[in-house]
Amino acid sequence: MNNPLINPGIGTFFWMLVSFAVLVFILGKWGWPMLLNALTKREKEIEDSLNAAQKAREEMKQLTAHNEEILRQAKAERDEIIRIANLRAESIAEETKAKASAEADAIIAKARQDIENEKKRAIVDLRNEIANLSIDIAQRLIQSELSDREKANAIIDKELHEAHLN
Question: What is the pTM of this model?
Fold first, then answer.
């Protein structure tokens, strides 16, 4: 068992110790500071990222609250617009009903006036027809009575005498 790695000699041990000391010196002088700076820089980046994430989280809460307020206002505006539209629709419907009622009343009044005019015209036409019939009947009667000359002269004298009295 004379393996130099397991049982090193005093010279090998010395040189290994010197090599180790040089390595520790080089690492202590240049390696460890760079490594510690990198770890410090990485730690700062992580801390900044966490702070940025916390800030973003706070901004998201504010934006969410702001968005909810905007949404609430939009719903209120929507409700108001719907209410106004319903009122306008009701007023338009009432105006339309009033116009239709007024037009119906006007049409009924015109129809009544037309009926009254037609009634008067029918009465006038009936009177004219009765007058024409009366004249025709009177004409026939007079012709039949005036066919006799003596009777005709008697009727004429009688009418003349009554005309002077009036």
Answer: 0.41
